[in-house]
Amino acid sequence: MNRKFSDVFFKHLVSIVALFSVLALGAILLFVFAQGSMPFFTYTSSDIRLVAQNIDELTVNGVVYKDHSTFINIPKSYDFISVRFNNETLEININHNEKDPQKILSFTHNNEINVTHPENYVSTVSWPQSAIIASMQKRIHIILPEPPYGLFGFLSGLEWRPSRDKVYGILPMIVGTLAAGFGAVLLGVPIALFCALFMAEFLKPKFAAIMRAGVELLAGIPSVVYGFFGLMVIVPFVRSAFNIPSGNTLLSAIIVLALMILPTVITIAETSLRAVPLSVREASLSLGASKMQTTWRVVLPHANSGVIAGVILGISRAVGETMAVILVAGNSPHLTINLLSSVRTLTSTIAMEMGYASGRHSEMLFSIGVTLFAIILILNSLILWYRRRMEHAL
Question: Are residues 179 and 121 in the same domain?
Fold first, then answer.
C-alpha cells in the first residue's frame, strides 16, 4: 500500500514539475518574442509628450500645469499644440504626413527661440535670453511617438545608431556572428573529432580516462576566462603576426571560440564513439579491415548521431557566446568578412547596450535576441535534416 501510494505521489509530482517547467519556459519565450516584435507593429507611445525645464507654470492647450516635472501627454492625433507661460507664446504645428522626423514640427512664437534636435523625434525649444547660465534656460522638450520600424530595414540595414538617429540595422552584426561561429566550427570541429577518435580508439583506457577528465575540466571553465586568455595571448599574437594596429579582430574571435567549443564537442563525440558496440569493430576487423579503416568507415558512421549532437552544441555555444567575443573581437558594427578587421556580434550588442537602453532601443535589443534565436533554430534544423538524410543513406 505504501509503495503504491509513493508511486502515485511521485508520478503526480513529476507531472506537476514538468508542467510548471514547460509553462515557465513558454512564458519566457512568449515575453521575449512579444518584446522583440513590438518595434515592428506599435508606436513607442500613444501620445506626444512634453517636458518643461525651469518653467514653474505653463498652459498647454488651455490646461494649466503647475510645478510639473513629469510628462505632459498630448494625443498624437492633434495637429496643433499651444504653449503659454509668463509672456511667452509658443504654437506648435504638427504635420503628420511628413516623413522627416526633424520637419514634422513647425513653430510659431512671439520672441526669439532656439530649436534643436538632440535626437530624431525629439525637439528642444529654448529661450536664449531667459538666463545667463545655460543650464537655467527655460526649455520645452517635445517627444514624438516613433512609428513602427521596418523589419526589412532592421534585418538588412548597414548602420546601428540608436542614440541619436534612431537607426537600427543589424546586418553587420548578423554577418559578424555567422562568420565568427562558422569560422570557429571549421577550425574547432575537425580538431575535436580527431581528439575524440584518438581517445576512444587508439589511446589506452588508463590514459584516456586521465585525458577525458582534463577535457571535462576545460568544459567547465567560464567563458570570461577564455576571453581573458584571448585578450592577453591571442590578440597580441595576431597583432604581431600580421603587423596590424590592433589584434582585436574576427580572426582572434574565431580562435577563441574554437578553443571554447573543443571540450564540448570532444566530450560528446568521444562518449558516442565509445558507445559503439565492440562487436561492430570485431566484425570489421575480421573482414580484413585495418584499425584506421575500421575507425573511419565503421565506428565513426555508427556514432554520427552523437557526433552531430556535439557539433550542434558547439555551434550554439559559438554563435551565442558573449563575454569572450566582447574582449577580443573589437566590437565595431561595420559590415566585413575580413579576418583582420574588427567585428561585432549580436550577443555583444545586447550585452554592451542593455544596461543603458530604454524605449525603442531596449525593444530593438529584444528583437536582436529573437533574431539570434531564429538563427540558431535554423542552423540546428539544417544539421538535423542532414543527419536524417545520412541515416537514410546508410
Answer: no
* One domain for residues 130 and 264: no
CA distances from 269 to 260, 312, 355, 382 (A): 15, 11, 38, 19
CA dist., res. 275 & res. 273, Å (int) = 5
pLDDT surpassing 70 at residue 166: yes
pLDDT at 52 over 70: yes
29-41 pLDDT, tens per residue? 888 888 889 999 9
Residues 309-343: b if buried by 16+ CB within 10 A, e if exposed: bbbbbbbbbbbbbbbbbbbbbbbebbebeebbbbb
What amino acid is encoded at 367 in this protein? S
**86: containing domain:** 47-148
**Residue 252 is part of a domain; what is its CATH number?**
1.10.3720.10
Residues 119 and 259 in one domain: no
In a domain, 27, yes or no: no
C-alpha cell at 44: 513607442
- Which pTM does this prediction carry? 0.86
Residue 125 half-sphere exposure toward CB, CA atoms < 13 A? 22
10 Å Cβ neighbour count for 384? 13
* Banded model confidence at residue 350, pLDDT cuts 50, 70, 90: very high
Give the whole-angstrom CA distance, residue 124 versus residue 118. 7
290 belongs to a structural domain: yes
Q: What is the number of domains present in the chain?
A: 2
